[in-house]
Every structure is written in structure tokens, then in C-alpha cells.
Amino acid sequence: MTLPATIPSLQAEADTRRWLERAVIGLNLCPFAKAVHVKGQIHYAVYEPAEEADLMDALLAQARDLVALDASVRDTTLLIAPNALPDFLDFNDFTARAERRLARAGFDGVLQLASFHPQFQFAGTEADDIGNATNRAPYPTLHLLREDSVSRAVEAFPEAEAIFERNIDTLEALGSQGWSELDVGPGSAKP
């Protein structure tokens, strides 16, 4: 499928749902994701502009909306920015600024921010290292998580600190070809 120059919201959300279902849940990269997915407690928001100028405001608005609702209604939010911050280093810098901004806005100890990017690369790894896929999504994505929910999930999951290592093992066993066959990239889903 050839993607348009500007990725529309419906395509970005459909691709992100497919990635969540096939990679994150399908490979059990996050053992906590399945429950909130099945219960419909994940909110998908799309920031469609290519300019990042208003992305911080969109993130803060999503944070306010998330904490305003009970966790049983909305436990987590994925803010997808399919047309903004295509360069991973720019995205990484933005994420660091976003964490500081969330803290200044009073969300420190309330929300955590996780980040995913199609070109995500851990420090000290090569760009094609399959382990980077643990944080690769079809589009730049900012994930708002409730601290309380994270704490409960970690308590319920024995050896939560081993998740990262297990994920690396899973991806190394899968290999680049296997990751490609998951077909979880941009344009992979039908909106």
C-alpha cells in the first residue's frame, strides 16, 4: 500500500491498533497490555499536523482528559503523531521536554510517559538491532500511563524487571524476517 503524503487519523489509529494486537500483545512484549485492550480502556488519540508546534499542548490535554476519567473507563492513552517528528533524535528530544512539561503541569507521580517511534534506537545499539523493535511503533507515539496502574501491574507480575530481557530474547528468536512478517508498519491495516 502506498501511503499518502499526510497520514490521516483513521489510518494511523488502525495501524497502531494492529501493531498493539500483533506485536505488543501477540508477542507478549507488554504483559499488561492485553487486559486494558480487552476491556477497551486504551484511548487512541491522533495528532495529525506535521508541525510539532501544538503537539505539547495536545499531550497535556490528553493527560488532563486521562486523569479526569476513572481508570475503569480509560486506563491509558496512546497519542499518535503520524506526520510529526519523523527523525528519532528530534522525537527523543521532544519526549524529554514532554516529561519535564508534564511534571511542571502537576502530573509527576500521577502519570508516566513512554515513547515509541518507527526508528527507535537504544543507546549503544546499531540501528538494525532487532532489540530496538521493543519500542518501535508504526508512527511516533507518546504513551501516557497511570502511575497507580503501573504499580498494580508490577505487583501482580512476578519479576517485572525481567520483562525487558525476555522481550530481547523473544525478538532475537523472531529475527528481522519474523518481525517483518508481523506486518505492523505504516499502511498495514485497513482503516
SSE topology sketch:
Layout (H helix, E strand, L loop, with lengths): L8 H17 L7 H6 L3 E5 L8 H14 L7 E5 L7 H20 L3 E6 L24 E6 H10 L6 H20 L9
Parallel strand pairs: 1-2
Antiparallel strand pairs: 2-4, 3-4
Helical residues, percent:
40-55%
Please give the count of helices: 6
For the report, how would you describe the main beta sheet?
4 strands, mixed
Average pLDDT works out at 94
Q: What's the order of the H and E elements?
A: HHEHEHEEHH
Termini separation comes to: 12 Å
The assigned structural class equals alpha+beta
- Principal-axes geometry comes out as globular
Which residues form runs of ≥5 with pLDDT under 50?
none
Strand order of the largest sheet: 1-2-4-3
Number of strands: 4
Q: Hey, roughly how much beta strand do the residues contain?
A: 5-15%
**Whole-angstrom Rg:** 16 Å
Structure summarized in a few sentences:
This protein is an alpha+beta fold. The chain contains six helices and four strands.
